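Summary for the lay section of the report: proteins are chains of building blocks that fold into shapes. Here we show the chain for SseB protein N-terminal domain-containing protein and then a coded description of the shape we predicted for it.
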Amino acid sequence: MTALDDLAAIPFHDADAPARARMLSRLADTQLIVALAADPVSDDVELKLFPLEGGQVALACDTEDRLAGFFGAATPYAGMPGRVLAGLLSQAGAGLLVNPGQPSEMLLDQSMLAWLQTALAAAPVEGSAALTLRAPAAETVAALAEPLAERLADLRGMIAGAALVGAGDAGESPESHVLMIAGAPSEEQPAIAKALAETLAFLPPQPGGVDVSFAETAPPAFALRFDLSIEQATPAPARPKGPPILR
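The coded shape description reads as follows.
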């Protein structure tokens, strides 16, 4: 099982839109092994394209063994992140078949790859504002908690903490939400903000949107906090060397 398989409890083409979006988000950051028409020459690669009813598609897997297993033998390949491959295929006017015969099998046509490219183009806009913080909406927590936890887990070691809060004064529900990030070095903040903006672009839109804030102030008690601690393996209890000696 791979990271893509873990998200495919329901097959991609049977899943609802949020589940498909989460798989595509993970696909963008997955190192894919894509079949080539011939061995690469320097940095030039020629993707092996297969004719299908809807047009030509490239074939990629998330492990070398899966690609070799599909062909029944070793085949020329190149490794590249899904986001890079999606860009190449958009230029070539081709689709993408991922992990055929596996739990995470997906067939992405040109329209799906175009949507993926649009989501990956999401970028934060820097700004400042004075906000009144409040508890996040239950609906927003239900929609964002799990996928945000997965993405924030990728940032362990780069940030010290994260919390989701609501913002706004009027009404029973927050007008918007803020994802508070603590402990991020200033030089890393643009890259972290871009990664989180991409993640949010793949998730169901929330009323008023979700902003990303870098602050060292402790989140309020009503915030939804994300546990970024690294789990330590519990050492096994020492085994006795032998039965006790009875005297």
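Put simply, here is one thing we learned. Residues 232-247 have pLDDT under 50 and may be disordered.
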